[in-house]
User: Which sequence fits this backbone?
C-alpha cells in the first residue's frame, strides 16, 4: 500500500469522481423507475449538472456535478430548481470545492444555505490489490447471481435493520437493485449470506456504496472481503481509481483511510431556503 501512486486531487480528478457518483445515482433512479413506475423517478442533465428525482423526501433527490464541467448561469439554476419544485421536492445541490466560481456565487445570490458536508475519498487500484487487515478465509464473496437476488435483498435489509425509519425504503431496495445496472456483491460465511455491497463503474472510476452486514455476523471480516473483492473486480473492468463518500470524521472515513483511501476534497450540500 505504501507504493501506491496517487493522482493529484485537481479539477481533472474531481470531474471524474463527481461524474462517477452522478452516474451511480442515475443508475439507481432508472432502476427505481423501472421497478416502481408509480414513483415517477427520473433525472435530467442541465449544463453538465445531473438532477435526480426519487420522490419528494428521498435523499437521492438532489443534483451532482453543479459547475464541475463548466460555468453555471441563472437560467441553468432556474431549470434545475423548477425540476424539483414541479415534483414537490426541496432543492439540494452537492457541490465540489473545485466547481466553477459561478456555482457558489449563484448559490449565495439565489438564497441557498449549506446543510451538510461529505468527504470524497479515493485510491488507486489494481488487479492484485491486497487490503491490510486480518482476512477471514471462511468469508467468500461473489458477484450476485440472478438466483441470489432475493437473498441479497433480504441480507441487505437485515444489515440495515437498526434504521427503522428506512425500513420501507430498504424493503424496496431488492426490487430496485434487481432492475439496476449497478453491480451487487454478496458475502457468505460457511455458506450463509451475511453481508452485501454495491459498486458502479464510470470512466475508469469504481464507486463503492451500499455496504451492510447482518448484526450477528459483524466483526468477522465480511466488509474487508467485500472491499478487496470489489477493488479487484473494478480493476479487472479497467478502473484505475476507486472512490467513496463519507461523513467527515466518521467510522467509515477512518476505515477507508486505513485501507489506502485519501480525502480528495470535502463537498458541501446546499439547500434552497429563500426562493427569489
Assistant:
Amino acid at each position: 500500500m505504501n507504493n501506491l501512486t496517487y493522482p493529484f486531487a485537481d479539477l481533472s480528478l474531481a470531474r471524474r469522481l463527481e461524474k462517477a457518483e452522478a452516474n451511480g445515482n442515475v443508475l439507481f433512479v432508472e432502476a427505481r423507475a423501472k421497478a416502481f413506475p408509480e414513483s415517477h423517478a427520473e433525472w435530467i442533465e442541465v449544463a453538465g449538472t445531473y438532477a435526480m428525482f426519487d420522490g419528494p423526501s428521498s435523499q437521492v433527490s438532489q443534483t451532482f456535478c453543479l459547475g464541475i464541467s463548466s460555468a453555471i448561469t441563472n437560467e441553468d439554476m432556474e431549470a434545475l430548481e423548477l425540476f424539483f419544485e414541479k415534483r414537490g421536492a426541496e432543492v439540494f445541490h452537492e457541490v465540489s470545492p473545485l466547481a466553477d466560481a459561478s456555482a457558489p456565487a449563484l448559490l449565495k445570490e439565489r438564497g441557498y444555505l449549506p446543510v451538510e458536508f461529505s468527504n470524497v475519498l479515493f485510491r488507486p487500484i489494481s488487479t492484485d490489490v491486497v487490503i491490510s487487515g486480518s482476512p477471514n478465509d471462511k468469508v467468500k464473496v461473489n458477484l450476485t447471481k440472478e438466483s441470489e437476488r432475493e437473498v441479497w435483498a433480504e441480507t441487505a435489509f437485515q444489515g440495515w435493520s437498526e434504521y427503522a425509519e428506512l425500513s420501507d425504503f430498504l424493503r424496496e431496495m431488492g426490487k430496485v437493485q434487481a432492475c439496476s445496472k449497478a453491480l451487487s456483491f454478496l458475502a457468505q460465511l460457511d455458506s450463509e449470506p451475511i453481508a452485501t455491497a454495491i459498486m458502479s463503474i464510470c470512466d475508469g472510476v469504481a464507486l463503492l456504496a451500499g455496504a451492510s452486514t447482518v448484526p450477528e455476523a459483524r466483526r468477522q471480516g465480511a466488509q474487508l472481503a467485500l472491499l478487496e473483492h470489489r477493488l479487484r473486480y473494478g480493476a479487472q473492468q479497467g478502473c484505475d481509481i476507486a472512490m467513496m463518500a463519507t461523513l467527515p470524521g466518521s467510522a467509515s472515513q477512518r476505515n477507508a483511510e486505513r485501507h489506502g483511501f485519501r480525502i480528495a476534497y470535502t463537498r458541501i450540500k446546499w439547500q434552497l431556503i429563500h426562493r427569489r
In short: The helical segments are 11-35, 74-85, 102-109, 149-159, 167-178, 222-236, 251-258. The chain has two domains: 11-119+266-272, 126-239. The first strand starts at residue 42 and ends at 46.
